[in-house]
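Appendix C reproduces, verbatim, an entry submitted by the partner laboratory led by Prof. M.T., so that reviewers can inspect both the input and the predicted structure.
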Amino acid sequence: MRRVAKTTDTMDTIDKVDTVETGRLAYLPVSLFGSVMALCGLALAWRLAATAFGLPAWIGEALGAVAAADFLVLAVAYGIKCVRSPAAVRAEFAHPVAANFFATPLISLLLLPAVIVPYAATLANALWLIGTVAMSTFAWLIVSRWMSVRQQLAHATPAWMIPVVGMLNISIGGAALHLPGTHAVGVFALSVGLFFTIPLFTLILSRLIFEEPMPGPQQPSLMILVAPFAVGFSAYLEVAGRLDLYASSLFYLAVFMFAVLVPRLVRLRSAAPFHTSWWAVSFPLAAMTLAALKFSIHQPSWLTHAFALATLTFTTLVILSLAVRTIAGVARGDLRDLTL
Protein backbone atom coordinates (compact mmCIF):
# COMPACT_ATOMS: atom_id res chain seq x y z
CA MET A 1 0.00 0.00 0.00
CA ARG A 2 1.11 3.51 -0.60
CA ARG A 3 -0.28 6.91 0.06
CA VAL A 4 0.08 10.01 -2.10
CA ALA A 5 0.73 13.30 -0.40
CA LYS A 6 0.41 16.78 -1.76
CA THR A 7 3.33 19.16 -1.47
CA THR A 8 4.18 22.64 -2.72
CA ASP A 9 7.88 22.31 -3.26
CA THR A 10 7.88 25.32 -5.56
CA MET A 11 4.92 27.20 -6.98
CA ASP A 12 2.25 24.57 -7.33
CA THR A 13 1.13 21.22 -5.97
CA ILE A 14 2.87 18.07 -7.05
CA ASP A 15 2.38 14.48 -6.07
CA LYS A 16 5.10 12.76 -4.12
CA VAL A 17 4.92 9.11 -3.20
CA ASP A 18 5.80 7.91 0.27
CA THR A 19 5.76 4.32 1.44
CA VAL A 20 6.80 2.50 4.55
CA GLU A 21 9.90 1.36 2.69
CA THR A 22 10.91 4.78 1.32
CA GLY A 23 10.56 6.77 4.53
CA ARG A 24 11.34 10.46 4.89
CA LEU A 25 13.65 10.77 1.89
CA ALA A 26 10.63 10.58 -0.42
CA TYR A 27 10.03 14.19 0.63
CA LEU A 28 13.59 15.38 0.00
CA PRO A 29 13.28 18.14 -2.63
CA VAL A 30 15.96 18.43 -5.30
CA SER A 31 15.83 22.19 -4.73
CA LEU A 32 17.85 21.68 -1.52
CA PHE A 33 20.92 21.52 -3.77
CA GLY A 34 20.43 25.28 -3.83
CA SER A 35 22.12 25.24 -0.43
CA VAL A 36 25.29 23.94 -2.11
CA MET A 37 25.10 26.74 -4.66
CA ALA A 38 24.68 29.29 -1.89
CA LEU A 39 27.57 27.96 0.19
CA CYS A 40 29.84 27.88 -2.87
CA GLY A 41 28.93 31.46 -3.77
CA LEU A 42 29.44 32.61 -0.18
CA ALA A 43 32.77 30.78 0.05
CA LEU A 44 34.01 32.52 -3.11
CA ALA A 45 32.76 35.85 -1.76
CA TRP A 46 34.61 35.44 1.55
CA ARG A 47 37.72 34.30 -0.30
CA LEU A 48 37.57 37.48 -2.41
CA ALA A 49 36.84 39.64 0.66
CA ALA A 50 39.88 38.18 2.41
CA THR A 51 42.05 39.30 -0.48
CA ALA A 52 40.45 42.71 -0.95
CA PHE A 53 39.76 43.75 2.65
CA GLY A 54 42.03 41.57 4.73
CA LEU A 55 39.19 39.61 6.33
CA PRO A 56 39.96 36.18 7.84
CA ALA A 57 40.84 33.79 5.01
CA TRP A 58 39.80 30.68 6.95
CA ILE A 59 36.11 31.63 6.74
CA GLY A 60 35.96 31.21 2.98
CA GLU A 61 37.93 27.97 3.11
CA ALA A 62 35.69 26.58 5.86
CA LEU A 63 32.57 27.50 3.89
CA GLY A 64 34.05 25.74 0.86
CA ALA A 65 34.55 22.58 2.91
CA VAL A 66 30.99 22.75 4.20
CA ALA A 67 29.73 23.23 0.64
CA ALA A 68 31.58 20.12 -0.55
CA ALA A 69 30.27 18.09 2.39
CA ASP A 70 26.75 19.38 1.79
CA PHE A 71 26.92 18.28 -1.84
CA LEU A 72 28.10 14.79 -0.91
CA VAL A 73 25.37 14.34 1.71
CA LEU A 74 22.61 15.56 -0.61
CA ALA A 75 23.93 13.53 -3.54
CA VAL A 76 23.83 10.33 -1.47
CA ALA A 77 20.43 11.16 0.04
CA TYR A 78 18.84 12.03 -3.30
CA GLY A 79 20.45 8.97 -4.86
CA ILE A 80 18.70 6.84 -2.23
CA LYS A 81 15.46 8.63 -3.04
CA CYS A 82 15.92 7.82 -6.74
CA VAL A 83 16.31 4.12 -5.91
CA ARG A 84 13.60 3.83 -3.25
CA SER A 85 11.08 6.42 -4.49
CA PRO A 86 11.37 6.59 -8.28
CA ALA A 87 7.73 7.63 -8.60
CA ALA A 88 8.37 10.68 -6.41
CA VAL A 89 11.39 11.64 -8.53
CA ARG A 90 9.42 11.21 -11.76
CA ALA A 91 6.60 13.36 -10.38
CA GLU A 92 9.09 16.06 -9.41
CA PHE A 93 10.74 16.01 -12.83
CA ALA A 94 7.41 16.04 -14.68
CA HIS A 95 6.15 19.08 -12.80
CA PRO A 96 6.31 22.28 -14.92
CA VAL A 97 7.89 24.28 -12.08
CA ALA A 98 9.68 21.77 -9.85
CA ALA A 99 11.53 20.29 -12.84
CA ASN A 100 13.54 23.49 -13.16
CA PHE A 101 15.20 22.81 -9.80
CA PHE A 102 16.92 19.75 -11.23
CA ALA A 103 19.41 22.31 -12.53
CA THR A 104 20.56 23.03 -8.96
CA PRO A 105 22.79 19.94 -8.58
CA LEU A 106 24.24 20.66 -12.03
CA ILE A 107 25.01 24.26 -11.11
CA SER A 108 26.60 22.94 -7.92
CA LEU A 109 28.94 20.88 -10.11
CA LEU A 110 29.91 24.09 -11.92
CA LEU A 111 30.59 26.13 -8.78
CA LEU A 112 32.36 23.52 -6.68
CA PRO A 113 35.39 23.46 -9.03
CA ALA A 114 36.06 27.14 -8.33
CA VAL A 115 36.02 26.34 -4.60
CA ILE A 116 38.19 23.21 -4.61
CA VAL A 117 40.64 24.00 -7.44
CA PRO A 118 43.41 25.19 -5.05
CA TYR A 119 43.29 21.79 -3.36
CA ALA A 120 42.33 19.31 -6.10
CA ALA A 121 42.81 20.73 -9.59
CA THR A 122 42.24 17.45 -11.42
CA LEU A 123 38.97 16.79 -9.59
CA ALA A 124 37.88 20.38 -10.18
CA ASN A 125 38.51 20.03 -13.92
CA ALA A 126 36.54 16.77 -14.05
CA LEU A 127 33.58 18.20 -12.13
CA TRP A 128 33.44 21.29 -14.34
CA LEU A 129 33.52 19.22 -17.53
CA ILE A 130 30.73 16.96 -16.25
CA GLY A 131 28.72 19.93 -15.04
CA THR A 132 29.14 21.82 -18.32
CA VAL A 133 27.92 18.93 -20.45
CA ALA A 134 25.07 18.11 -18.06
CA MET A 135 23.98 21.75 -17.67
CA SER A 136 23.98 22.38 -21.42
CA THR A 137 22.02 19.19 -22.03
CA PHE A 138 19.49 20.00 -19.34
CA ALA A 139 19.01 23.56 -20.64
CA TRP A 140 18.42 22.13 -24.13
CA LEU A 141 15.90 19.65 -22.70
CA ILE A 142 13.93 22.31 -20.81
CA VAL A 143 13.81 24.72 -23.76
CA SER A 144 12.68 21.84 -25.99
CA ARG A 145 9.93 21.05 -23.48
CA TRP A 146 8.77 24.65 -23.46
CA MET A 147 8.56 24.66 -27.25
CA SER A 148 6.87 21.26 -27.54
CA VAL A 149 4.21 21.41 -24.81
CA ARG A 150 1.78 24.23 -24.22
CA GLN A 151 2.65 26.02 -20.99
CA GLN A 152 0.39 27.80 -18.51
CA LEU A 153 1.12 31.44 -17.65
CA ALA A 154 0.56 30.63 -13.97
CA HIS A 155 3.60 28.32 -14.15
CA ALA A 156 5.87 31.14 -15.36
CA THR A 157 7.63 31.67 -12.05
CA PRO A 158 11.18 32.81 -11.19
CA ALA A 159 12.21 29.13 -11.05
CA TRP A 160 11.99 29.12 -14.86
CA MET A 161 15.17 31.18 -14.83
CA ILE A 162 17.28 28.42 -13.30
CA PRO A 163 17.87 25.95 -16.19
CA VAL A 164 18.95 28.32 -18.95
CA VAL A 165 20.15 31.35 -17.02
CA GLY A 166 22.07 28.83 -14.90
CA MET A 167 24.30 28.41 -17.94
CA LEU A 168 26.05 31.60 -16.82
CA ASN A 169 27.70 29.61 -14.03
CA ILE A 170 29.69 27.70 -16.67
CA SER A 171 31.61 30.91 -17.34
CA ILE A 172 32.26 31.54 -13.64
CA GLY A 173 33.41 28.02 -12.87
CA GLY A 174 35.54 27.72 -16.00
CA ALA A 175 37.38 30.97 -15.33
CA ALA A 176 38.97 29.47 -12.22
CA LEU A 177 40.42 26.55 -14.18
CA HIS A 178 43.23 26.30 -16.71
CA LEU A 179 41.68 24.05 -19.31
CA PRO A 180 42.04 24.78 -23.03
CA GLY A 181 38.88 26.09 -24.60
CA THR A 182 37.28 27.35 -21.38
CA HIS A 183 37.06 30.90 -22.75
CA ALA A 184 35.14 29.80 -25.86
CA VAL A 185 32.82 27.65 -23.76
CA GLY A 186 32.38 30.59 -21.40
CA VAL A 187 31.35 32.86 -24.27
CA PHE A 188 28.83 30.24 -25.45
CA ALA A 189 27.33 29.89 -21.96
CA LEU A 190 27.28 33.66 -21.46
CA SER A 191 25.44 34.15 -24.75
CA VAL A 192 22.76 31.58 -23.96
CA GLY A 193 22.26 32.77 -20.40
CA LEU A 194 22.00 36.47 -21.18
CA PHE A 195 19.81 35.93 -24.25
CA PHE A 196 17.21 33.90 -22.36
CA THR A 197 17.22 36.36 -19.46
CA ILE A 198 15.32 38.92 -21.53
CA PRO A 199 12.24 36.93 -22.62
CA LEU A 200 12.04 34.93 -19.38
CA PHE A 201 12.26 38.01 -17.18
CA THR A 202 9.57 39.70 -19.27
CA LEU A 203 7.30 36.66 -19.12
CA ILE A 204 7.71 36.22 -15.36
CA LEU A 205 7.19 39.91 -14.66
CA SER A 206 4.01 39.79 -16.77
CA ARG A 207 2.75 36.84 -14.71
CA LEU A 208 3.52 38.66 -11.45
CA ILE A 209 1.71 41.80 -12.59
CA PHE A 210 -1.40 40.32 -14.18
CA GLU A 211 -1.95 37.07 -12.29
CA GLU A 212 -2.73 36.35 -8.64
CA PRO A 213 0.20 36.87 -6.23
CA MET A 214 2.18 33.77 -5.39
CA PRO A 215 1.38 32.11 -2.05
CA GLY A 216 3.49 32.99 0.97
CA PRO A 217 5.73 29.90 1.01
CA GLN A 218 6.58 30.53 -2.64
CA GLN A 219 7.46 34.21 -2.22
CA PRO A 220 11.18 33.58 -1.46
CA SER A 221 11.71 32.42 -5.05
CA LEU A 222 11.17 36.02 -6.16
CA MET A 223 14.77 36.66 -5.11
CA ILE A 224 15.81 34.51 -8.07
CA LEU A 225 15.05 37.57 -10.23
CA VAL A 226 18.26 39.13 -8.90
CA ALA A 227 20.41 36.21 -10.06
CA PRO A 228 20.42 36.74 -13.87
CA PHE A 229 21.93 40.20 -13.49
CA ALA A 230 24.26 39.44 -10.56
CA VAL A 231 25.54 36.18 -12.06
CA GLY A 232 25.51 37.75 -15.52
CA PHE A 233 27.76 40.54 -14.25
CA SER A 234 30.27 38.10 -12.73
CA ALA A 235 30.20 35.86 -15.81
CA TYR A 236 30.66 38.77 -18.20
CA LEU A 237 33.51 40.13 -16.09
CA GLU A 238 35.26 36.76 -16.24
CA VAL A 239 34.80 36.38 -20.01
CA ALA A 240 35.49 39.99 -21.03
CA GLY A 241 38.19 40.57 -18.44
CA ARG A 242 37.22 44.19 -17.86
CA LEU A 243 34.55 46.39 -16.32
CA ASP A 244 32.86 48.23 -19.17
CA LEU A 245 29.52 50.00 -19.62
CA TYR A 246 27.62 46.78 -20.26
CA ALA A 247 29.04 45.06 -17.19
CA SER A 248 28.20 48.11 -15.07
CA SER A 249 24.65 48.09 -16.43
CA LEU A 250 24.19 44.46 -15.39
CA PHE A 251 25.45 45.28 -11.90
CA TYR A 252 23.16 48.28 -11.50
CA LEU A 253 20.18 46.20 -12.64
CA ALA A 254 21.09 43.63 -10.00
CA VAL A 255 21.29 46.35 -7.35
CA PHE A 256 17.89 47.72 -8.38
CA MET A 257 16.19 44.31 -8.21
CA PHE A 258 17.96 43.64 -4.92
CA ALA A 259 16.54 46.88 -3.50
CA VAL A 260 13.05 45.97 -4.73
CA LEU A 261 13.03 42.42 -3.35
CA VAL A 262 14.92 42.59 -0.04
CA PRO A 263 12.11 44.49 1.77
CA ARG A 264 9.67 41.77 0.66
CA LEU A 265 12.04 39.16 2.05
CA VAL A 266 12.25 40.92 5.41
CA ARG A 267 8.44 41.15 5.66
CA LEU A 268 8.09 37.50 4.66
CA ARG A 269 10.25 36.37 7.57
CA SER A 270 7.51 37.30 10.05
CA ALA A 271 4.53 36.52 7.81
CA ALA A 272 5.15 32.92 6.69
CA PRO A 273 6.42 29.74 8.39
CA PHE A 274 9.80 28.36 7.39
CA HIS A 275 9.92 25.95 4.43
CA THR A 276 12.79 24.45 2.48
CA SER A 277 11.62 26.72 -0.37
CA TRP A 278 13.22 29.59 1.54
CA TRP A 279 16.59 28.35 0.28
CA ALA A 280 15.59 29.98 -3.02
CA VAL A 281 16.81 33.30 -1.59
CA SER A 282 20.28 32.04 -0.71
CA PHE A 283 22.13 31.74 -4.01
CA PRO A 284 20.78 35.03 -5.45
CA LEU A 285 22.01 36.76 -2.29
CA ALA A 286 25.40 35.05 -2.58
CA ALA A 287 25.59 36.01 -6.26
CA MET A 288 24.73 39.62 -5.39
CA THR A 289 27.42 39.64 -2.72
CA LEU A 290 30.06 38.27 -5.07
CA ALA A 291 29.08 40.81 -7.72
CA ALA A 292 29.25 43.67 -5.20
CA LEU A 293 32.72 42.62 -4.08
CA LYS A 294 33.98 42.39 -7.66
CA PHE A 295 32.48 45.78 -8.52
CA SER A 296 34.03 47.39 -5.44
CA ILE A 297 37.45 46.07 -6.47
CA HIS A 298 37.12 47.52 -9.99
CA GLN A 299 35.46 50.76 -8.80
CA PRO A 300 36.89 51.39 -5.33
CA SER A 301 35.16 54.00 -3.17
CA TRP A 302 33.77 54.17 0.34
CA LEU A 303 30.26 53.58 -1.06
CA THR A 304 31.07 50.46 -3.11
CA HIS A 305 33.17 49.05 -0.26
CA ALA A 306 30.40 49.69 2.27
CA PHE A 307 27.77 48.11 0.04
CA ALA A 308 29.94 45.04 -0.60
CA LEU A 309 30.68 44.49 3.09
CA ALA A 310 27.03 45.10 4.05
CA THR A 311 25.76 42.52 1.56
CA LEU A 312 28.46 40.07 2.68
CA THR A 313 27.32 40.41 6.30
CA PHE A 314 23.62 40.21 5.42
CA THR A 315 24.02 37.18 3.15
CA THR A 316 26.17 35.33 5.69
CA LEU A 317 23.55 35.84 8.40
CA VAL A 318 20.69 34.75 6.12
CA ILE A 319 22.43 31.57 4.96
CA LEU A 320 23.49 30.74 8.52
CA SER A 321 19.89 31.15 9.66
CA LEU A 322 18.58 28.94 6.83
CA ALA A 323 21.15 26.26 7.62
CA VAL A 324 20.36 26.21 11.34
CA ARG A 325 16.60 26.04 10.78
CA THR A 326 16.92 23.31 8.14
CA ILE A 327 19.28 21.15 10.19
CA ALA A 328 17.08 21.56 13.27
CA GLY A 329 13.98 20.56 11.29
CA VAL A 330 15.64 17.50 9.78
CA ALA A 331 16.99 16.47 13.18
CA ARG A 332 13.45 16.61 14.57
CA GLY A 333 12.21 14.45 11.69
CA ASP A 334 10.18 17.31 10.21
CA LEU A 335 11.43 17.04 6.61
CA ARG A 336 7.95 16.25 5.32
CA ASP A 337 6.42 19.27 7.12
CA LEU A 338 9.17 21.56 5.85
CA THR A 339 8.34 20.66 2.25
CA LEU A 340 4.54 20.81 2.52
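Strands lie at 3-7, 14-18. Additional entries are available on request from the coordinating office.
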